[in-house]
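Listing S7. Sequence submitted for prediction.
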Amino acid sequence: MQRNFLKVGVAQMQETRRLGRNLREMARFVHAASHAKIGLLVFPECALTGYGPSYHESPGGFDPDAVEAAIAEVRGLAREVRMAMVIGAHLPVEGGPHRQTSPPPARRRSWTNSALLIASDGRVRTRYDKAHLYGRDAEFYQAGSAPAAVAGLRRLRLGLQICFDIRFPEPFRRLALRGARVILVPSHIHGRREMWKGPVIEAHVRSRAAENGRFVVFANAAGPAQNVPSMIADPRGEIVARARRGARQLLVAALNLRRVSDDFLRARRTDLCDARLLPS
């Protein structure tokens, strides 16, 4: 990463229900990104583990030791190629039961849908647990309870959100106010290509970038049902890079961080805002 510039990559990969296969696919993207001299590589939501515990064949549910070992391999890859990355995975809730059947009883939700920011030295710099759970997610995951946090990567401050979080502007504004210059959004959004999600999600990617003057990197999973391509928006809300919908692809963009702007943050009329739900 050069001063004021970040070469970012999105690994638009198709995850499977097999941890080992996902890990091998991720390794291929990592080495391709290394050849492209990418400084930060962003994988989709749950790229390592597959999305949704019900997606997995094993009747015993997830083995946390296997997940931990796979994360260790990814950290080793980061050290090997000296590249930072964001990976999505199911992670055990700290202090909770670490094994669950699929699908679990609601009282035993012991996994979070999470993203890890791994530095180029292999260290995990931060963990973000998805706060807004969509559809059946709440049957399998425990929602994150910590506010959106900013993590440092060398001189750059980054924010993390996951998929459905993009429908809510408040965490993105919090990240911008706390100094994040690039906000990373691992996602898994699939469905009919003609459904409403495509234009609506792109509008959210654009607006979250423009209303905060930040770059937004949206990394969606590939596959035949992918209805929103991965994309990167600049601080004006313009799409500067877009993947091919459905295709396994490494999307690359060079971000000029000098373009990050606090103009809209300074112009806010906070005296006219009330975050509480007003009575009807």
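Caption to Listing S7: primary sequence and predicted structure tokens for the chain studied. The mean pLDDT is 89. DSSP finds six helices and twelve strands in the chain.
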